Amino acid sequence: MKGINEEGYLIIEDRIYTIRGMQVMIDRDIAALYGVETKRLNEQVRRNINRFPEDFMFQLTKEECLRSQIATLNSEQGKHLKYLPYAFTENGIAMLSSVLRSEIAINVNIRIMRAFTQLRRQLLYNPDLFKRIEVVEYHQLEFKRWMSQTDNKVEKILNKFEERDVRPKQGIFFDGQIFDAYTFVADLIRSAQESIVLIDNYVDDAVLKLLSKRAEGVLATIFIKKVSDQLALDLEKHNQQYPAIKVVHFNKSHDRFLLIDDVVYHIGASLKDLGRKWFAFTLMNDLTASDLLSKADA
Questions:
Q1: How many helices and strands (H and E) does the chain possess?
Q2: Tens digit of pLDDT for each residue in 187-218?
Q3: 106 with 225, same domain?
Q4: What does the pLDDT average to over 108-137?
Q5: 177: which residues sit within 8 A by CB, 6+ positions away?
Q6: Same domain, 147 and 187
Q7: Which helix (H) or strand (E) holds 41?
Q8: End-to-end CA distance of the chain
Q9: Is the confidence at residue 159, as pLDDT, over 60?
Q10: Phi first, then psi: what are they for 13, rounded to 5°?
Q11: What are phi and psi of 206, to 5 degrees?
């Protein structure tokens, strides 16, 4: 039969695992040797479940699958088991011959029994081998746990970058750095996921162009002391083509603030004047946008 050597030992022995202190074979391996689908094998077992007590057959846990490297039977990386496989002891495999009565099943059963006998002799004459197997399996499990924890840590770090949690905290732009300052603010606007609030008493069409770079579905609001006739016209034209920018009349602020979601930046210059003169920006670590806006409503 394909997949079995002439004696029927070596490959079968490679498919015998030590689980719960017993030598067992897994349903998928047995089904492959019998030439049937795993589903059909388990269906026949369920129909005759009274013949398979727990010392004949038991279902593995996820940890046992990882420990015995059985997870790879169900997926390439062993991360997503479609089902928890069943393990059959030597007695359980012997009982299978009464459930699957094909000539192939009978011949394979004989070879499996011989493989179990061969392995039992090896363990009998070399008892330290059994202990070494358990130690190796334990370290394999510990390594898998360590790798899983490491993967989770790396994933969290990558998620932080994707969520743009690593934001510039403070800095200064000098006169002439018009493009650098413009790019800096544009990147902040693009990073918004829900809302942008600009508190600035001096706004023109250049600021509206900046705000048009926000992602789809992100709300934009400008708090401003007075809306000039020109700005009112620019806003009307802008809102006809792009998602509307809401304007709130507000006369309580002297400084400029840019609120990206719940993060607050203090900006030392109006956005329309970026790069024309020296200005600094600061991330307000101890102040959230919600807190700041609650003061505006007070």
A1: 11, 11
A2: 899 999 999 999 999 999 999 999 999 999 99
A3: no
A4: 62
A5: 275
A6: no
A7: helix 38-47
A8: 83
A9: no
A10: -60, -35
A11: -65, -35
